[in-house]
Amino acid sequence: MKYYLIAGEASGDLHASNLMKALKTEDSQADFRFFGGDLMSAVGGTRVKHYRELAYMGFIPVLLHLRTILSNMSLCKRDIVEWKPDVVILIDYPGFNLDIAKYLRINTQIPVYYYISPKIWAWKEYRIKNIKRDIDSLFSILPFEVDFFEKKHHYPIHYVGNPCVDAVATFKESYTESTQEFITRHQLQPEKPLIALLAGSRKQEIKDNLPQMLEAASTFASTHQLVLAGAPGINPEFYAQYVGNHQVKIVFGETYPLLSHARVALVTSGTATLETALFRVPQVVCYYTAMGKVVSFLRSKFLKVPYISLVNLVAGHGVVKELVAHLMNVDNVRAELTDLIYDTPERALMLKGYDECLRILGPAGASEKAAHEMVRKLTNRP
Q1: Cross-strand bridge partners of residue 6
Q2: 198 with 251, same domain?
Q3: Which of 115, 214, 233, 321 could covalently link to 52 via disulfide, CB atoms 3.0 to 4.6 Å apart?
């Protein structure tokens, strides 16, 4: 069968690539065409556009690149219709993907599946109307979404487990490098524990968060080594303007190896918060925004959930500290790092909370479960 997938950012590329591998197991004739990234390309098929050409975040960047966004959207619609896939699989990225789904419902008979559902439980809950109308099947990766969609909105979904559990488990099965070997390979300072900096995958996130992360973490530079996880598609030159004279090493394409050896991490909210928890690395969630106090006020009025990090949302309580908007400043980050970088009660409590999250998420196998159910539905298997 022919599968058309759309992923608009790095995490979507990762999870879509694992889904594609599982689909190939279920369907030996699987043929892929997609908007995505390098990981999806490695699985096979035809990439129409790289997600780097799609990933704009925030009102101003979107406005400045509106012509490009609309052009890519038109291209995607035309390409799907011309290729005539058996199914279109959307991966997160709701602003783009829900528009595609609407177009396909009006103009084609192609079924549309959503893998990694839009986070409408956090905000823009009105989008449930679009989902009910335009999405044939929704595959959820967060356990609390079942109650939200099925009990609150009477929309049946498939909870398949979380692909981050799969990705981390798969990595751990084959990764054998010791901390000393990692340090030597990257020419890091020996005998210094690592502080991992995960500043996001988009330029705006990096611009907003990295400077304060670096300043706070540099307090510990005499005893610890700062290592920045370079995001896919971001050039070293972009990071250089924010790194300045800070003692930090940038490593690209090695977020999981870095987390395997890190003592503590500063993480911009997103999938990375959950991945960090799965590696059992104590973390501080950092998400700066301009006009922080205003944003914090608006958040309290419009955000439907009490947390922004997946760790806390899955656990249902505050496992990790979230420094968001005006709370994200150097002094606060430094204070939280001090609590976690040593063997403190705060560190032990966070690790216990991580174990609780893993229990709630369930075992690995999300990609396989989703692929099996998708193929079953498409082929009318019992």
Answers
A1: 35, 90
A2: yes
A3: 233
Helix 271-278 to helix 163-174 angle (10° resolution) is: 40
CB 125 within 8 A of CB 304: yes
SS (H, E, C) 362-373: CCCCHHHHHHHH
Residues in the chain: 382
Contact call for residues 100 and 6 (beta carbons, < 8 A) = yes
Q: Which domain holds residue 110?
A: 2-161+365-379
CA distances from 200 to 135, 137, 369 (A): 29, 30, 29
Taking only the tens place, the pLDDT of each residue in 326-381 is 899 999 999 999 999 999 999 999 999 999 999 999 899 999 999 999 999 999 86
242 and 181 within one domain: yes
138 plus 212 within the same structural domain: no
Residue 254 and residue 272 in one domain: yes
Residue pLDDT, tens place only, 263-298: 999 999 788 999 999 999 999 999 987 644 444 444
Query: Could you tell me which of 219, 225, 220, 227 has the C-alpha nearest to residue 191?
Result: 225
Q: Is residue 362 within 8 Å of 161, Cβ to Cβ?
A: yes
Q: Which structure tokens are listed for 254?
A: 């090695």
Residue 116 dihedral angles phi and psi, to the nearest 5°: 70, 85
Is it the case that residue 244 has pLDDT exceeding 50?
yes
Q: Are 212 and 333 in contact (CB under 8 A)?
A: yes
